[in-house]
Amino acid sequence: MKIFWSWQSDTHQPSNRYFVRDVLGNLAKTLNGVDDAAEESDRPVGTEEDGEDEGAETDDDFVSVDHDTKGLGGSPRIAERILEKIAAAAVFVADVTPVAEVPGGKHVPNPNVMIELGYALHVLGEERIVLVGNRAFNAKLSRLPFDLRHRSAPAFYTLRPDATEERKAEVAAELMDDLRDRIAPGLKLALKQLREDARRTRRVPELSVIVEREADDPFLISQTPQRNGVKTLDEIRAENPPLRFPTSPISGAAHGIIASQRGLSGLGMGGRVRQPSQWTSEETETYNRSVQQYYRRYDAFLDEHDEHSKLLLRTFQVQLAVKNSGTSPATGIDVDIYFPDWIMLWDHDEAPPSAPEAPEPPAKVIVDNERNYGRIVQARPLWSDLIPKGIYNRHTTLIYPEERRVRFSEIALKHHTYASLEPIIVTLATEQDVTSFDAKYVITANEPIDPIKGEVHFDVRLVDGKAT
After folding, report:
1. Architecture of domain 2-202
2. Which of the residue ranges 39-48, 136-145, 280-289, 411-420 would you say has the lowest mean pLDDT?
């Protein structure tokens, strides 16, 4: 990117033309990250051309200084070529120091500089124009032409022709700081425009992976267990208290079976069922021990339920898409997305484990039968049954949970459009993993030829005490 310096030679050149040129050259070095920029600024004014190496880089964001016919060979039409240079510049810097005073006291800048400035305003816009003036030669805001007087004030400095080298270095440092603040935004704007122009000219696809969300809101994750509809241990104790021992002894051996409540549904014919009033002391004691075991199993169930609840709270659905923000279609697109180690992915037919089942309390009956009665267990719903129907089209997105990888393919993608992946179910492994993360991706396609590598960011935040 070029900083074009529009100078005038009507005033003392070492204090104006060459001085500002060298300051701009050192500023360019600073912006390019050259370490010796500070040392270069201490060189005598006028000993360096413009702070630009002949073998300078050609990167879009490399900054250099241009002026007049620099770099032109042959016998060009100077005025036309200068206007071409101005149109191609990133930032235009003009010396508006007065060079003459007309009858009536009006001060006039150099006319050639004014012509170039007017053209620069037309082709570059005022945000990429910087004015500079030397107060030692009557530069003053009130002495500018009317159209310039009401714009941002120029970068004024004061340097007399007889200034010492120490004074020159001091003024150069101050002016470079001032010009940096004025020029840097213009360079940024020019770089943006340069890349946009190149994007429109080169006609190439630009592929990336994005998160589809209506807003940039983060994924809010709570780790407060949800116990909706689950009884507490105190409620279980109240509903299933130990039995009192019978007041009068009941004869007979304790050969019966204490069934669970669910087990009763599987009882066959032929078993004699006895109620607690018909139990022996030994049978009552056996039942009470079963009740205590039931309490312990239920307490363990509550812990498992809480962990499962928090696991589900750490599980959420993400919607990704491949976007083509370029200026040409892409074909034969394959996308591989790699999630971090602490992320669990679920295939379309799989899901986080089903909720643990609460243990059954012992039934208050004894069955005089040695048969074993199995539990009747209802089939657990698949995770896919909990997701709205029609959400998966099982032909473009493949999920590899063990590799924590998602693969997506698309035949063609026009420019300025995007293709959605099928929704992905993601689980953060532990509560400590509830944090923002990046997933890396690699895109290959027929065009562009080279693989595209990047990252897609997931903004995840822990919200204590709040359900999500």
Report:
1. 3-Layer(aba) Sandwich (3.40)
2. 39-48
